[in-house]
Design a protein that fits this description.
The structure is a homodimer. By secondary structure, chain A is an alpha/beta fold. Chain A has eleven helices and ten strands. Chain A has a five-stranded mixed beta sheet. Chain A has a five-stranded mixed beta sheet with strand order 8-7-6-9-10, sandwiched between helices. In chain A, helix 1 packs across helix 2 and helix 4 packs across helix 8. Chain A starts with a strand and ends with a helix. At the A-B interface, strand 8, helix 4, helix 6 and helix 9 of A face strand 8, helix 4, helix 6 and helix 9 of B.
Chain lengths: ~300, ~300
């Protein structure tokens, strides 16, 4: 029998989900990460093979299993060398099966919009957006934290630090932000932030991204400066969305995933304000692994 | 006889200038840097002593020389440990003479405004502003390139990179900027900027600051995006100035030094637009070493 398999290979785990021709999920499993920048070639192959074996074991009543696979793998982007490495791993792992490789953003987009054409904004530690329109995929943002990642948790955390310095100097009006940051980071003096940045933060992407949680706490207490940071983040994200939505003839569906969206209306409300009227913002419908299945189904359905 | 000595101790050189009671410059010399973060204690002492000896040699007709010194030294700021180290060096170097220690920003301010109260904006690789009002000194900005240094060459260089990514994505309208940056940095593909940033720039403060020269070239050719970067830089610098000018009762004199100002009207014109009407912007009148002399003269004149 024919089965459609979605694989979501991210930085922390590899998720597998198997659907039958009646679109019922008949098997799934989660293994460790197969990210090419985190594990070697042999390990990646072993994880992908193992996942398929587990799915097959769940289907042991069926003696003639045909898998049609879509693997959405982190790292499968613009870098040609990485693409080749991933293609070689998949060739080895999926032989005897038909398959297609996407990057993790494309399957997340398919999942969030349930296979519809549209745009997905991923805003976690970094930020990037993907669009799919009539089989054609584009991206915007996602240049990394050194150059941009506008509206990401890193970007929001950095804005918090900058707002702190501006309030300390009297460039911006003081809100509760300075005292809140000082207490949270255990700074004695305003200027201790300089040594804290040099010795503790050290431009560490993850540590600065975590500071976004402080912005969230402050914004919940209605701190004007924190709300302004979310407003600026929303404006940057709207800019990313509009750069992609220009290609859409009429209305354009947009969804979102990633840690920044946990701030809910704090980021969603200003975003709606900045978005053109042809944009329809939707909560994400299904997880990325389901998006991978959808792509496999639409491509290979018999 | 009494002489007033100005010393400007920066990161690249130490300048000495000696004036008599008739305000005539009677001796000067330039030695290497005595910056406490660049040379050890003994070396710093030897440079400062040597400078005074050279001045004294020029005054050999005078057998009863009294020096009244103002030393404006880089590093003499908020850091208590550094302050102590510098004070100990000066105690050893200037014994038998009356002296006062300032930081290099304060003497630059005194020089630029010829001893008048007001504000000096220093915008080179980094940025900071100092104000002097009735003997009281304040600062704004200058939190370092990780946190701010708004309007500095580093900040302008970073904005260029961000504008490049936004134009590549179609978030901002394309100008000549992308092709100009690609040619200047010898990038083949738009996305080569990512590896250029990771492998060549490596968040190196000096290298990114040098990119400000490209913004200058583009702005001279009337590139809209480059002009917008200068406009944003000017708005940030205006914010720094206003945070200090609030304390001034009426009009407030402001001057400027540092590499960014070589852009002349490209930065000065938008700055004038953003400045309050009580601000009087003046070209810098004298160099920092003259400012140090002025402070010594005003403090110690007999």
């Amino acid at each position: 029998m024919n089965y459609y398999v979605g694989i979501d290979g991210g930085g922390t785990k590899t998720a597998f989900a198997c659907y039958n021709e009646e679109k019922e999920c008949v098997a799934e499993c989660i293994l460790e990460s197969c990210h090419v920048l985190q594990v070697d070639r042999e390990k990646a192959i072993s994880i992908l093979k193992q996942g398929l074996e587990r799915l097959a074991q769940s289907l042991k009543n069926d003696v003639d299993v045909h898998f049609y696979i879509c693997a959405g793998l982190a790292g499968y982007g613009k870098d040609k060398e990485l693409r080749k490495r991933i293609e070689s791993i998949c060739e080895e792992s999926f032989k005897n099966h038909k398959y297609v490789i996407c990057n993790d953003g494309e399957i997340a987009l398919a999942g969030a919009l349930n296979g519809k054409d549209g745009i997905l904004v991923i805003s976690g530690t970094g930020s990037i957006a993907y669009s799919t329109l009539q089989g054609h995929t584009e991206r915007s943002g996602g240049w990394g934290y050194m150059l941009g990642d506008e509206g990401s948790a890193y970007w929001i955390g950095k804005k918090l630090l900058q707002e702190y310095t501006k309030q300390c100097d009297g460039r911006h009006s003081r809100t509760d932000l300075v005292e809140f940051v000082k207490n949270s980071l255990k700074l004695k003096d305003d200027y201790d932030l300089i040594s804290y940045t040099a010795n503790i933060l050290k431009n560490d992407r993850g540590k600065i991204a975590k500071l976004a949680l402080l912005v969230n706490d402050l914004a919940k207490k209605n701190d004007k400066a924190a709300l302004r940071i979310y407003d600026e983040a929303a404006r940057e994200i709207a800019e990313i969305i509009h750069s992609l939505s220009k290609s859409f003839p009429n209305k354009c569906y947009v969804s979102y995933i990633g840690g920044v969206w946990k701030a809910k209306e704090l980021i969603i409300d200003p975003l709606k304000y900045y978005l053109n009227e042809n944009i329809i913002l939707e909560e994400p419908k299904y997880p990325p692994v389901f998006g991978a299945y959808l792509i496999a189904y639409n491509l290979f359905k018999v």
